[in-house]
Amino acid sequence: MQKSLSIDPNKCTGCLQCELACSLDNEGVFNPSKSRIKVFNFEGKGRFVPYTCTQCDEAWCAEACPTNAISVDRDTGAKVVSDALCVGCKVCTIACPFGTINYNQSTGKVIKCDLCGGDPECAKACPTEAITYVDANWTGLDRMRASAAVADAAAQA
Amino acid sequence: MAWVGKLLRVNLSEGTCESEPLNMEWAQAYLGQRGLATKYLSEEIDPKVDPLSPENKLIMTTGPLTGTCASTAGRYSVVTKGALTGAIACSNSGGFFGNEMKNAGWDMIIFEGRSPSPVYLMLLDGVARLVDASKHWGTSVWDTEEAIKHDHGDPLIRVASIGVSGEKGVKFACVVNDMHRAAGRSGVGAVMGSKNLKAVAIRGTLGVSVKDPRRFMEATAAAKKVLADNPVTGQGLPAMGTQVLMNVINESGALPTRNHRDVQFEGAGNISAEAMAEVRETDGKKNLVTNAACFGCTIACGRVSEIDRTHFSVAERPEYQIISGGLEYEAAWALGAATGVDDLEALTFANFICNEQGIDPISFGATVGSAMEMFEEGVITTDNTDGIELNFGNAEALCKVAELTGKGEGFGAEIGLGSKLLCEKHGRPELSMSVKGQEFPAYDSRGIQGMGLTYATSNRGACHLRSYTVASEILGIPEKTDPLVADGKAGLVRAFQDATAAVDSTGMCVFTTFAWTLEDFAPQVDAACEGEWTAERLLETGERIWNLERQFNIAAGFTGADDNLPPRLLKDAAKTGPAEGKINSLETMLPEYYEVRGWTPDGIPSNETIARLAL
Description:
- The complex is a heterodimer of chains A (157) and B (615).
- Chain A has helices at residues 17-27, 60-64, 91-95, 121-125, 141-156; strands spanning 3-7, 38-42, 47-51, 70-72, 79-81, 102-104, 109-111, 131-135.
- Chain A has 157 residues and is α+β, with helices and mostly antiparallel strands.
- The model of chain A has no long low-confidence stretch (mean pLDDT 96).
- Chain B starts with 5 loop residues before the first strand and ends with a helix.
- The longest helix of chain B has 22 residues, at 535-556.
- In chain B, 38% of the residues lie in helices and 13% in strands.
- In chain B, the strands form four sheets. A six-stranded mixed β-sheet of chain B has the order 2-1-6-3-4-5, sandwiched between helices.
């Protein structure tokens, strides 16, 4: 069973624990500027929105890569960058419609979410369950359940 | 590890920026942030300098854990000689700026001298330069922050800046970062303005490391669980914010009202957390939109609010029909109970202005309260107030005066003197509800005895964040003591003061202490920092810091006579509530406090104490 990161901005407080956990796992230091997941604070709107790679089935980053540096992790479905093959051409960053693969100046390679090999640190670090790691076929299950409860309450009224 | 080991020295007179190694011997003795920066300031300036002169220095400082994943570890402090008090000032702020400074590779920035013209510091990792800020001078915090990000084409830059109030020398101007987090008290923003320093803008990408990452992750995870499982930090603060206190303190008869004439406010319910969460009849929305976290904080007590668009304060002002930083308890009290105003939307508007122009809502609201009392007594009239009818409870007056004070204009410049100078100017010094020139926060010391001693002995002037005995006296944390009894409070205040000084030096937030003791801090600090850090060592470090601050103030000219309260709290008994008939018993607590501190009967640290703490 594949799993996906499920993000619920309604629960996010903007604390950046996800960015800290991501950067520690990938860089060995606490460094939100090198995080693969970013939380956006929409100033004036009171909204905090985490965002990261959603691991497209038809991954345009991988299609665009001239050195075949982006491959599929068969266990998790994650699209994973091979540092050995990446030449830092950044074509993938142009191809990605969502901006979730980015160039890292200090290494000359691109970085993106790799689902931490199936145990994503961001989801574990999130104190409010705004980021969870759930069955890929049922990322809508919680919202569906909530909607069902509302519909049921209306039916009983 | 934890400490970067580097500080940036910016000489504004010469226009130079130099890197130097952090004094690691001092870091072992004073930890970081509040403690370490106070040590630097004490060594580098004459405590007698005029706070607004080029000879004063202003230090922005992180703690060793700032920028790590420990809960709430994003704090920084601004340390200087305070414009409002003339005493040691250390104002602590959250948001995201502190982490950015640390990630740029700096523990501390020391600003010296005075720039010949307005500048801001631009810091991109190791590269520092001073940039002309003349086009930002005269603009608000909000506009400055937005313009700097825009000019550099980088929305990820973090900015700490002053508003027009700081430029104009409003005595309680603050430094605001991330739009609505503030190093709020003692007028650190006025000092920054006196140096022609408009802002500090930082982008940091270098990363922060700790001594023992595995042990650090275990210690921080355990401590986060303590916060999550605690009813205050796990439920009360995220849901209600610090505003959870409004009704509690009012019922305790310790909510200072109308410049401390009363100790209970009939309008408290209207300006409480509960009111913020109520659906408004006018527009079907709530004042409170959501809660929000500072960097790394798993509590998330921050308030994010929207003013009713039909309210008089914003009806014709679309620029304020936004969602922004909402009322915390201290602000709601000062803007509300202290002025007798119970209009939640007006308070939220005044709070927006405080953030936008960088003024401390506590000192601002309390000073307006003192002016209102003088107005009602006929000491000042509409001739003094630009025609504003400054009666207690006048919401429109509050909003107008907030805007004037934010810009340091007209009557706002008078309010910007702070209550001490304002009341002295009009011959009524006893109406200033302050200690060492700084206004009281939201707890009346007739109803919470320990807070009287807390205020009287606070090194930065009246303040609740130097020893929050409210936790013990009202909330029963870590154990309940009777708020109406003075006995035993000297030891309690000392213990809170020392522990808090240590916490303020770590990079973490004092609000964690609703759930954490030093036993929870120690394993986190120990896993991050060189040296062995136990709870006992943290407490001793706090005591060393407290005594160092005291020595600074004594050298600045303060004496035991300044450890005092206004006559109203010592002579006029509380009129209602559980504390009815009570005054504050400072007279009995103070000598005992000096004794438990190891100070002379005049309040001077004894030679034995100085030697014991290796000061």
